[in-house]
Amino acid sequence: MKRVWRLSTQVLENNQSLFSTDYEENKKALDAVSEISSKKLRNQIAGCITKIKNNEQKALLVSQTTKSSTTSEVQTSDESD
User: Fold this and answer.
1) pLDDT value of residue 66
2) Sign of CA dihedral 61, 62, 66, 69
């Protein structure tokens, strides 16, 4: 499994813009970028890339939510003075 994660991160670092949170699109992009003879390995790598992209998107949403709630708290405390 370490091999799959290592390969996934390497492919993702070199081709960040080609991949998204959609598994099917990631399989097609992986076929275009690399030559993987094993269908099982390709699917595992595409799955890992999808998981990484989903986690990045969730982290971005959490940070945006935290920023907006902090901003609204500051505005509320400024208005009460």
Assistant:
1) 82
2) positive
Task: Choose between 62 and 77: higher pLDDT.
Answer: 62
Closest CA to 31 of 45, 21, 20: 45
The answer to whether residue 48 sits within a structural domain is: yes
Return the pLDDT at 41. Answer: 95
* 59 inside domain: no
Instruction: Quote the tokens at residue 78.
Output: 């400024």
- Domain hosting 2: range is 1-8+20-53
How many C-beta atoms surround the C-beta of residue 3 within 10 A? Answer: 10
Task: Flag whether 75 is in a domain.
Answer: no
Quote the tokens at residue 72: 């609204």
The per-residue pLDDT for 64 is 86
Phi first, then psi, for residue 20 (nearest 5°) are -140, -165
